[in-house]
Amino acid sequence: MKKVYVNEKWCLGCHLCEYYCAFANSGEKDMVKALTNLQIHPRIQIEEANGISFAVSCRHCDEPLCVKGCITGALTKKDGVIVIDKDKCVGCYTCILSCPYGAISHSETGAIQKCELCTKNAGGVPQCVKGCPNGAIVFEER
Hints:
By secondary structure, the chain is of the alpha+beta class. It is about 20% helix and about 20% strand. Strands 1-8 form a two-stranded antiparallel sheet. Strands 2-3 form a two-stranded antiparallel sheet. The mean pLDDT is about 90.
């Protein structure tokens, strides 16, 4: 299964992946209209420490602790991708505490949000990968 991988040696820390992610999940057709004057809530986050930048997103683990810890069954694994049923999520945030990578966050709707590899909005290659100007984020099978 293809997953998103990050080469921190190539990451510029430009945060464009965050904007492409937020745009991909906005439901809008125009990026400028979708993101102008808004605080974005991307499902991928750039972390910076000691001069190194890298993107953090869901790793779609083989044995996902977030799915095991979800008390309502809102998180499931389908075809290798961990997906959210927002109607089932009660906002207990057990999954946030369970994720060893810090890849799950709360959303403005009260449910959680995480990378779903753009399966619900763009299909094909995730938008963070397409938008990375330096090729630091790739979508490949390893």
